[in-house]
Amino acid sequence: MNIISWNVNGLRAVWKRGDFDWVLKEKPDVLCLQEVKAEANQLPPEIREVPGYFSYFSHSKGRKGYSGVALYTKAKPEKVEYGMGIHKYDQEGRMVVAYFKDFVLLNVYFPNGGGGPERLQFKLEFYDEFLKFIDGLKKKGKNPTSHKATTGRGVVFCGDVNTAHEEIDLARPKENEKNTGFLPEERAWLDEVAAHGYVDVFRHFYPRKKDAYTYWDMKTRARDRNVGWRIDYFFATHNILSKIKGIKHLSNIYGSDHCPIELVVSL
User: Fold this and answer.
1) What is the residue-level pLDDT of the chain in tens, covering all 267 positions?
2) Contact (CB, 8 A) for 239 and 154
3) Do β-strands 261-265 and 244-249 pair in parallel, antiparallel, or remain unpaired?
4) Residue 111's CATH number
5) 102 annotated active-site
6) Taking Cα atoms as reference points, which of 247, 201, 256, 203 lies closest to residue 228?
7) Which of 19, 90, 160, 232 is flagged as catalytic?
8) Measured between alpha carbons, how far is 68 from 58 in angstroms, rounded to an integer?
9) What is the pTM of this model?
10) CA distance 230 to 9
11) What domain count does the chain have?
12) Distance between first and last Cα of the chain
């Protein structure tokens, strides 16, 4: 099974430019999109109902053309949920949860901390509630209490986390120490995620790989110089990690300020 995650920065725009065509040719088993910026009924039929896929959408309830996620899957999930059950966060349409036989997959567009102290606080609170939510999923999966449990239903979450974890994860760490996306309190949350038993799959396979980014600022043409950030991730619990065969950044795919990332799982 291959799962692709991609922040498209506007699905309708990507479609109109023809930059969605490669997805239709690639035909991944699961496709997770973030920052869709549209309600399902605003999307062209060709991408709202892709042949061979079950599709699920969550959109912002307060602002049109903002946030939103989409999930396409060839195999129908046992169950699908939207959000964490907390109105404050769920109204922004940031999460789809799909329950499969062997694992739970969460497609998440985490908040950006820009726009002032209130939005940074919102982001940090969202982080904390999300960690509680996925810890609850582990317990429902009847995993043993050990963070390194090897039985039970696994948990995988992917998407735009909007934070680079370590200095190796962005091209200009010193210049961004006081900027959201690389603040100590944002990075500390990713430390906590790891401490709770969720593995950054890319760093599991490539612990010291440099210059591996998933986001580049378009205004400064940063992608041309590879001055980027690694802020898009796949995290997985230990009980499914042995089934993961690989991960890669699809940096040759354009159409957004993010590139897609692909996870390969043997199930």
Assistant:
1) 999 999 999 999 999 999 999 999 999 999 999 999 999 999 999 999 999 999 999 999 988 899 999 999 999 999 999 999 999 999 999 999 999 999 999 999 999 999 999 999 999 999 999 999 999 998 886 534 444 544 578 999 999 999 999 999 999 999 999 999 999 999 999 999 999 999 999 999 999 999 999 999 999 999 999 999 999 999 999 999 999 999 999 999 999 999 999 999 998
2) yes
3) antiparallel
4) 3.60.10.10
5) no
6) 256
7) 160
8) 6
9) 0.95
10) 16
11) 1
12) 7
For 247, the token pair is 């991960």
How far apart, in whole angstroms, are the C-alpha atoms of residue 185 and residue 196?
A: 17
Which amino acid belongs to residue 232? D
Q: Which domain holds residue 187?
A: 2-265
Q: Are 3 and 158 in contact (CB under 8 A)?
A: yes
- Report the 3 state secondary structure along the chain: CEEEEEECCCHHHHHHCCCCHHHHHHCCCEEEEECCCCCHHHCCHHHHCCCCCEEEEECCCCCCCCCCEEEEECCCCCEEEECCCCHHHHCCCCEEEEECCCEEEEEEECCCCCCCHHHHHHHHHHHHHHHHHHHHHHHHCCCCCCCCCCCCCEEEEEEECCCCCCHHHECCCHHHCCCCCCCHHHHHHHHHHHHCCEEEHHHHHCCCCCCCCCEECCCCCHHHHCCEECCEEEEEEHHHHCCEEEEEECCCCCCCCECCEEEEECC
